[in-house]
Amino acid sequence: LHSKLPATGTTIFTVMSQLAAETGAINLSQGFPDYDCDPELTELVVSSFKAGHNQYAPMAGVMKLRERIAEKNELLYQAQYNPDSEITVTAGGTQALFSAIGSTIRPDDEVIVFEPAYDSYAPAVRLFGGVVKTFKLDPPYKIDWDNVKKAINSHTRMIILNSPNNPTGSILKQKDIDQLIRITKGTDILILSDEVYEHLIYDGEKHLSMALFPELAERSFICASFGKLLHTTGWKIGYCLAPAALMTEFRKVHQYEVFSVNTPLQHAIADYLKDEEVYLRLLGFFQEKRDFFRKLMNETKFDLLPCSGSYFQMASYKNVSNEPDFDLAMRLTRDFGVASIPESAFYSSKTDHGLLRFCFAKKQETLEKAVERLLKF
Ligand code: PMP
Ligand code: GLN
């Protein structure tokens, strides 16, 4: 068989979650909550089934959900996205990313990806013949925009950004945005902005969505996920925002990739989001979790990197061990009963920072139990 992705194996999230299940370890690897969503939301799902919303949704998504999404972007970012032509409901953030790449990247187009990077970007670019231009960032993961500018040439088609960042927990600051505006001005470079953790940001920092900056929004696909907002990663519903001309292209791919996504859940989410408080509640909820986990982890031998956003905490074990991070992640799962993700999984080249990523979207008692075990390391 002539593989289209010869260098790609099974995603690390599957590998580590499977190992956690096999060994009975506490799973702080793959990012998902171990608590349920709001029962009110579950009720709305049941009502939605009973109301007979059980056939295909419109290709671009149930209109009342697109309207809610438009209201949210107006409320949080003072941005106007037209529900008719600029918003599409997708099968999670993953499909939003994939369709954005699939609808714009041609063979030999160059796409700038900063590493550590979420693992779906590069394979998607390659499937469409694109060339991934990697910028390797080392902790504290700051982007050197002058270097990025130097790499831009007539083949550069897209820059992929992810803030708040998985796995680093870092966020884009205003000076990053200023540089991004500077280096893309007057070009036709697109921005693919993965903002699935937009509501998970701490210490009073503000999420700088591309939607806030008209010069960037006019060239941006913004990808979001209800999995993070509603604690429902298994529902696989998200959306993409883009100016109408880009969204027209996006939908040409979306309509043949999935056509449309789960109808009853779209109705339920739309009804739930009538309450705008949902967005605000989440802020306090995750700040508490982050603070709680960091406090517990400070008692262990791990050194914690800063975490400004997302539900991931990077922890260094350099003081304790020289093992490669993959080996240690395996050993901690098997021998200590706590699963994590090795940082090197987010790089395409050999990397050894001695860091593990822990997901803290877990019940208090899960975090306590996990850290109790990590104290023995
Ligand atoms: N982007 C990032 C950075 C992610 O961490 C994830 C996974 N949670 C996704 C995209 C995909 O989101 P979804 O689960 O909605 O497909
Ligand atoms: N985004 C989640 C993580 O980083 C996993 C999603 C997935 O398994 N594809 O852990």
From TrEMBL:
Gene Ontology MF annotations: kynurenine-oxoglutarate transaminase activity; pyridoxal phosphate binding
Domain Aminotransferase class I/classII large: 25-374
Tagged with keyword Transferase: yes
Domain of life per record: Bacteria
Stored InterPro entries: Aminotransferase_I/II_large (IPR004839), Kynurenine-oxoglutarate_AT (IPR051326), PyrdxlP-dep_Trfase (IPR015424), PyrdxlP-dep_Trfase_major (IPR015421), PyrdxlP-dep_Trfase_small (IPR015422)
Lipid metabolism listed as a keyword: no
Coiled coil residues, start to end: none
A family per Pfam: Aminotran_1_2
A Gene Ontology cellular-component term: cytoplasm
SUPFAM superfamilies: PLP-dependent transferases (SSF53383)
Cofactors (names): pyridoxal 5'-phosphate
Record keywords, A-Z: Aminotransferase, Pyridoxal phosphate, Transferase
PANTHER family noted in UniProt: FI04487P
Family per similarity comment: Belongs to the class-I pyridoxal-phosphate-dependent aminotransferase family.
Name this polypeptide is given: Aminotransferase class I/II-fold pyridoxal phosphate-dependent enzyme
Annotated source species: Hufsiella arboris
